[in-house]
Amino acid sequence: MYLAVRKSTARMESLAEEVKTKVLPTVEVAHSMLVEMRPKVEIAVENVSEASTLVRSQIERLDATVNDVIDRARLQVIRADELLNRTMDRVEETTDMVHRTVVSPVRQLSGLMKGVSTGLEFFLSSKRRRRGANVPQDEMFI
Fold first, then answer.
1. Which residue from 36, 84, 109, 126 puts its CA 20 to 30 A from 54's CA?
2. C-alpha to C-alpha distance for 74 and 68, rounded to whole angstroms
3. What is the mean pLDDT of residues 49-61?
């Protein structure tokens, strides 16, 4: 058992020596790199933080601007709709007024003229019939 412990101890010492010669220099290089890069990483983190703050504020401004544009566009659409409705109402009122003041009196005048012309036609045709009554019927027959 002593020999086994001694053999294990010797092996452990050789492994420890190997770790010292191979791993420790690598750890020291990594440590020195981290020490050297730490300020650069801190600056990069600070720059990213400032950039994200700037981007956030610009996005907030853009959002406010877009909302303002949308609100104004909505108001203009409402205004245009009201203008169109008023215009259509006025066109309808004007059409009704023209119908009442022009078309209806023209129809009435046309009816009156038609009545007068029919009356004159009847009156004149009855005079012709009376004149024709004096002419004997035999002469009219051919």
1. 36
2. 10
3. 97
